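dumping this here so i dont lose it
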C-alpha cells in the first residue's frame, strides 16, 4: 500500500524510473513534500530567518535553519517569538517609565 502512495504522490516511483537504478536508497530518503518546511517557500523561510534575526538570537545559520526538522523548526520559532515578545514588553515598560 505504501508503494502505491509513494508512486502516486511522486515520493518514489516503485514501478519504473531513474530513481530505482540511480538512487537505491531513494525510497527512504526525505522527499520535498515530506519536508517539515515543504509548505513554506524558500523566500518565506528566508523572510522568517531575517525578521526574527535567527542568527543573532540563536547562532543558527541560514542553511541549518532551512534543514531543521519540523518539530525543532516550530520550537525554535516559538521560542524566538516568546523572546522577542518579552523584549518588546520590557522596552515598552522602560518607555513608559522614562516618559512619565
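and the seq i came up w/
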Amino acid at each position: 500500500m505504501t508503494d502505491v502512495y509513494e508512486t502516486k504522490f511522486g515520493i518514489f516511483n516503485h514501478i519504473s524510473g531513474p530513481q530505482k537504478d540511480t538512487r537505491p536508497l531513494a525510497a527512504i530518503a526525505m522527499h520535498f513534500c515530506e519536508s517539515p518546511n515543504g509548505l513554506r517557500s524558500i523566500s518565506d523561510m528566508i523572510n522568517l530567518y531575517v525578521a526574527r534575526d535567527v542568527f543573532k538570537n540563536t547562532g543558527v545559520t541560514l542553511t541549518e535553519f532551512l534543514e531543521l526538522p519540523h518539530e525543532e523548526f516550530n520550537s525554535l520559532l516559538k521560542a524566538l517569538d516568546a523572546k522577542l515578545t518579552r523584549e518588546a514588553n520590557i522596552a515598552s515598560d522602560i518607555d513608559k517609565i522614562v516618559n512619565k
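The mean pLDDT is 79.
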